[in-house]
Design a protein that fits this description.
By secondary structure, this protein is an all-alpha fold. About 55% of the residues lie in helices and about 0% in strands.
Length: about 110
C-alpha cells in the first residue's frame, strides 16, 4: 500500500483546519484542499500534482495579493487594533520589498 495518499490527506487537513477555517479570503485554495482530503485515497492527487496545482495558483496571483495580511475570522473589530495591525503589516511588507524578498520563499 502506498503511504503517500495519507501524507496528502494530512497536509490537506492541516491547510483546512489552520487556514480555511481560521482566515477570510482563502477560497482560492479550497478546491485543491477538497481533493486532498477525499475519503478514498485513490481519488487524492499525488504530491507532485498538489505541488503543480499550488504553483499554478501561486503564479496566478499578483504579488500584492500574495503579500496581503491574513485576517482572522474571529479577529477583533476594534478600530484601533485594526489600524495597528495594518500599520505593522505594511511596515514589515515594505521591508521585505526593499530587501527584494519573494512573497513566497521558493527553494532553488
Amino acid at each position: 500500500m502506498d503511504p503517500f495518499p495519507t501524507d496528502v490527506y494530512y497536509l490537506g487537513n492541516v491547510i483546512r483546519v489552520d487556514f480555511l477555517q481560521r482566515y477570510h479570503d482563502m477560497e482560492f485554495i479550497k478546491p485543491l484542499v477538497e481533493d486532498m482530503v477525499q475519503d478514498e485515497p485513490s481519488k487524492r492527487p499525488t504530491m507532485e500534482e498538489v505541488n503543480k496545482r499550488f504553483m499554478e495558483i501561486y503564479h496566478h496571483f499578483p504579488k500584492s495579493k500574495l503579500r496581503s495580511r491574513l485576517v482572522g475570522q474571529r479577529e477583533s473589530k476594534d478600530p484601533l487594533l485594526v489600524v495597528q495591525r495594518y500599520i505593522h503589516h505594511y511596515v514589515r511588507t515594505l521591508i521585505h520589498i526593499l530587501l527584494r524578498r519573494n512573497p513566497l520563499p521558493i527553494p532553488a
